[in-house]
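COURSE: Structural Biology Practicum
ASSIGNMENT: Worksheet 4, Part C
STUDENT ID: 0417
INSTRUCTIONS: Below are two proteins. For each, the amino acid sequence is given first, followed by its structure token string. Answer the questions at the end about the second protein only.

PROTEIN I
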Amino acid sequence: MTEVSEILMSVLSTIRVPRPGDRVHKDECAFSFASPESEGGLYVCMNSFLGYGSTHVDRHHAKTGQRAYLHITRTRKTQKEEDPNAGSGDPPKKKPTRLAIGIEGGFDVDQEQYEEEVKVVLFPDRQEVTSDDLASMPDVVRERVSLSMAGLQAADSVSHALQVQQWDGEVRQESKYAAELKQLDNGVKIPPRCSYLSFSGWKCEVCDLQENIWMNLTDGKVLCGRRYFDGSGGNNHALLHYQQTGYPLAVKLGTITPDGADVYSYDEDDMVLDSKLPEHLSHFGIDMMTMEKTERTMTELEIAVNQRVGEWEVIQESGTTLRPMWGPGLTGMKNLGNSCYLNSVMQVLFTIPDFQTKYVSNIDKVFAEAPSDPTQDFKTQVAKLGYGLLSGEYSKPAPDPGDDPSASTEPRGDQVGIAPRMFKALVGRGHPEFSTNRQQDAQEFLLHFINMVERNCRSGMNPSEAFRFLVEEKIVCQQSQKAKYTQRVDYIVQLPVPMDQATNMEELQEAERRRDEAESSGAPPPAVTRAQIPFAACLAALSEPETLTDFWSSAVQAKTTATKTTRFASFPDHLVIQIKKFTFGLDWVPKKLDVSIDVPDTLDLSALRAMGQQPGEELLPEVAPPPLMTPDVEVKGILGSHGNEEDDSLYSPLLSPVLDDSTVSQLCEMGFPLEACRKAVYYTGNTGIDAAMNWVMGHMDDPDFSAPLVLPGSSSAPGTTPTESVPEEHLATIVSMGFSRDQATRALRATNNVLERAVDWIFSHLDDLESMDVSEGGRSEGGSEASREPPPGPRVRDGPGKYELFAFISHMGSSTMCGHYVCHIKKDQQWVIFNDQKVCASEKPPKDLGYLYFYRRVVE
């Protein structure tokens, strides 16, 4: 022990005591999904506080020279079967009573109990030091090591903080109407609910509904609540009453107890607190202290939905028993709280060879080149996730100490799986949505992740090229028959759903009639009838020409009608198709189309290949439309005061556009930012509210959505100059796509340094860019025409447009912001369903109900 004491003394400077703000990774290895519960436990560096599994700690020691590690092992406690009559034993798992995570009464994050053992291990000989051993060591050693051990044990680990992320969905604010709520002296008294009556005692005064009943706290009207997305709930009579009277507060009868009740404010559009609720109820003869709860609160209803969503039975295929699968490429992923969208997308991506080659095939090289903090390195964490999914190391049945192994003959299907906490935290960092525990759109996450791959693969292999393709848009002026061609890069084909092409239209109309009858009579709604849409009709809707009204034709120098046709200028190796199920109703309320589409196993898109300019076809002159100007603006000339013949700026930045004030006002009243409304009206040419609203809905996610309007040709926003420097990161991203630095600079300056807009701009100005000086391409303006090489363009792969389906992601729920995602992947001619930690052979894959479809090229 004297030798060990001397070693500790020599490395005492590398043993730190955790301070507030230090990131302690004591639950997960930086390079693998090893944890203290894994075989070999977890080694936490006592200097950097990074965790390493038994297979990675030697590398860290060799690379850094660190010798002292805190070794943590956890053993699952044996859970004995509980005797209901016994006075001891662990209490049963409590049912959640609050819509919350990580707080008393909420959803428990971790129900499992462990016994933990900690000791200091000194490398390279792995000498062990326990707390008892420290007692015989010098005071300075004992004090520093003991404090470090205690501090590491007491510190909250980073992964646990990410997992819990305390959230309470029941935190309600006091209503602004509660203190001085007006109550009418109309003599209304509400009788208590009577158990001896033939009905419950309360019913809607309009439709006689007896459930989901609310009382308006101003006039005492008893009416039914809102109708839910599935047709259940009420008939909206309480809401309609508010719209007619403006009386804001209502209480849900049946939830009133001495502790409170559900109070909703229609004007504030939220559940609220009413500090004077006993007084307000007493006005209508209700004694709050004697009331008992007879209906589920809104929180209990939401909890029931949240518990239901994750159940395996919800997505079982036609009630069949699904066979669990294990092994390489069949690893489940734990749901970290609404992270099923991430799980589904990453499962599919790591079946694609490009991602396997980039991140998994050379994983030793990736780990060897990792920075000092690998938890913050994109390449390291993606490689870690890919290896975890493909290796099979974590594809093994999850232990269930509550079950007697001899009593069950069927495997349960749950896996140990992997919990992608570090990965989720890294890819979501700084993002307003993906950094939260809320449900997200799988398509939006896929594009977000591809964008991160693009930014992190500026040199070397870029796996996102597997999805990248060029789209050609051809616009033909109907008056002059002259055409204009533009190209843009894309990663996903968005397929429209033409509801008017449903093959069961008569059945849908009959279902609509029955639903209307049920609504008018107050009867329960009938079963939902799903529209049957042919895939060919969706493809035709994508490829058919679109009519453009009020198109400004440079050939006739006036507005006219044009047609726009979209085609593939290249076909990617892997094609992603999104079924546009999520749309907006006439009232701009988001809704999901409940449709069944006969998506084929094989796909031939050869007929949709772009042909480019045809022989004898004339192109529209490259002359821009006249700017919209106010009458009192002095016209500086077609080039403007800042323009020149070599510049792309055709208008003066000083010109002010004429905008339809009424349309701008209407958009602002809907809650959109003023500058966004001005841009919507400007870019739709003052053509009305519908066109402007469509523009708004299509650009809400733009980074510059609320930024001031910058006129075409102006490369600077207010307060900047045209020569303002461009972000080096954005330059590198565009250059990595095959363009020169000069071209990337010009694109960014033309779009106010907004990367997404710059990429669109550069693809719509390829002809202009061809004549540019290319500083990095070896081409100069003085070179001869014959010596000029083709202009650089985006790196896209091209080949035959024939594909086969290998995966699809499905969504269950009324909106992308709620519900559940699963994915089906074809593995060795067998369809496999991945539902978070459960991986099973699929018997009847619901290919007609998917949201995102993944095809790979068929090479003949």
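PROTEIN II
(use this one for the questions)
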Amino acid sequence: MAPPAQSQRSQSPSQPSGKSEVSDLKLQLRQLAGSRAPGVDDSKRELFKKVISYMTIGIDVSSLFGEMVMCSATSDIVLKKMCYLYVGNYAKVNPDLALLTINFLQRDCHDEDPMIRGLALRSLCSLRVANLVEYLVGPLGSGLKDSNSYVRMVAVVGVLKLYHISASTCVDADFPSMLKHLMLNDSDTQIVANCLSALQEIWSAEASTSEEASREREALISKPFIYYLLNRIKEFSEWAQCLVLELVTKYVPSDSSEIFDIMNLLEDRLQHANGAVVLATVKVFLQLTLSMTDVHQQVYERIKAPLLTLVSSGSPEQSYAVLSHLHLLVMRAPYVFSSDYKHFYCQYNEPSYVKRLKLEMLTAVANESNTYEIVTELCEYAANVDIPIARESIRAVGKIALQQYDVNAIVDRLLQFLEMEKDYVTAEALVLVKDLLRKYPQWSHDCIAVVGNISSNNVQEPKAKAALIWMLGEYSQDMQDAPYILESLVENWDEEHSAEVRLHLLTAVMKCFFKRPPETQSALGAALAAGIGDFHQDVHDRALFYYRILRYNVYVAERVVNPPKQAVSVFADTQSSEIKDRIFDEFNSLSVLYQKPSYMFTDKEHRGPLEFADELGNLSIVEAADNVVSSQRVEENDKDLLLTTVEKEETRGSSNNGSAYTVPYDSSASVFASQTQIEPAISNPTTAGHSQQAIFGIDDLLGLGMPAVPDVPSPPQLKLNTKAALDPSAFQQKWRQLPVALSQELSLSPQAVAALTVPQALLRHMQSHSIHCIASGGQSPNFKFFFFAQKYEEPLNYLVECIINTSSAKAQVKIKADDQSTSQAFSTLFESALSKFGTP
């Protein structure tokens, strides 16, 4: 006899085996619906739990809707809650089922038990079905007048839900006036807070269309109402206190006596156990005293102790939030916190994000009186097992040194770091020593003595290697082996993957050549030859520039590359004072944690209102703002932006159709940088007379072995159509079909980066060069633009994708063209136009 067939997959005991399981539940619920036998509620609970569990894991049990509603006719609150949960879930996706629940929910809104009345009213308002709003008005009106505070509280929130479903129904029913009456007269502070929150949202939304709503919104920050809330603030919950305090920050007192009255009323809030309440109170104190300099400074002294207490007494997350606000205050008034620097010492068990913020605090509060103690503490962190924190601590030591506090002791500490046998410590110390030498050249003898003992083979990090090479070039006259170390680096040129290191190496060899020419001659020739053939655009341009200026006049080259140096007095701040003030205005918000104003991470203007599915796949056309472009222009969402503009070396290797530069005489090469830099020297009549023999002598001296070739006449310049027009859909189609003709990375001047704070300025500038923008998007530091241009009197289009990163001052450019043979000429025009952006 054959064994019985077995199911291939066993059913989970928590899931129904099929439709029969749901049918069984339906039958059992129907049997219990009209039963009044003892213990029937317990049986209903078990069935309800099964239904809710099935619903939670995604099984469709909507067929039980009728039976669930019938079984809800009970006084058991637990059953009511589960039934309301079930009803609310399926009412959203099936409005027809929601209509069936109206009767029993309205009936429960008049139940004797206030808990059931409140639950029913909340469920009724949570249905959020537009065609059922007429059924909400009556229960909400009754709920706002209910004798029980819980029901009134639910009704207030229900009014706000109704407003979002149908604003006109809410206003026509005069619910805002009822909320205002409750807010001013109700004895329950939670209801007052709910009314305040709801009215702020409603009147703010209505203010643009209703003068009455605008007046009511202004009345919320009037003196009588503010004092009414402040006198009752101790009765409010923590959430409600924060709401009230945020409202108080918008109030403008009439005189200084009012300011002191408000601060006296809120004095004890600074001692509150809840950090949110303390921060909200601190914001009130700071905002009220902005115009009173002396009092404002006293406020810093007063709020210091509560904030420091919160840092040490809360969770790491709370500590980080409070520390972020303290950091903002320290940047504005470091002297106030200079005596409390020990509060910012790192604890061994703190998370790295807290330690990193504390290191920034220690850097900010350092002054003449505490520098020794702070630097001593930071040096201990350099041996931390947490390598990122060790790096940050070394950088903090360097930042303090650049602030001119106890430089002698700090330089000694940094030189000790160079002697530590840890690669990351040596790397960070080298970068800092370079900055110190730029500001304190008098320390060069001591520093170079130690740096000269460091082998370049032991330094692998690009920034550290670049710093070492800079010192080898800058102080080559004091370092005996500098030319030979540079020569060995040039010999390994192809093994160096960092463009930054190759750029520094070119400059260092040039500087060394002018100080020790016989020992550096061959190294310079090899470096220029390697640089001219480099696939990286910046490296190629710099090598070509050095070669041409050497051919022109060696003495001019020395003045350009190795001029008399002046000590750097101030290093650039990474954040403008305007942005810092904006963040301070948004105290006690996410802006402080992100260290950027809210408009940078919330406004649609900075997120990009339009979305691209695939490059220009879903272009939506909008009119060009301020008549920037004659054609139509669109904006682009950040989802399509490349957040990193530094591409992989393999990608860069495909620049210019994969061909590397080999000779400096190629008339098609992109050399606008070298041309623009060499023009001032050539225009000098006193140095213009040089023979061809001197020019060719440089080639022979450097061992480049390049033949003396007369200058090739430049081809006729490409002329563009000033009134070009291109439909976005046509642009989109061409962009997908055409191959990339050129791909390169360009450098932006500091003036261009500064001008990009208003991206429209770039669009106007490029249009003045007959290059039009058809799409743009992004936010600082990443911007993306799509340009197009047309050849004069010919139907040939040039399409450009330009991705700009203002942090690195780099632009990644891709060019596509109908006529590939003219793409290089257009590239030269585009580069020339971009190089002039930001110049007067």
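ANSWER KEY EXCERPT:
Q1: The two ends are 99 Å apart (CA to CA).
Q2: Strands lie at 634-636, 742-747, 772-779, 782-790, 797-805, 810-817.
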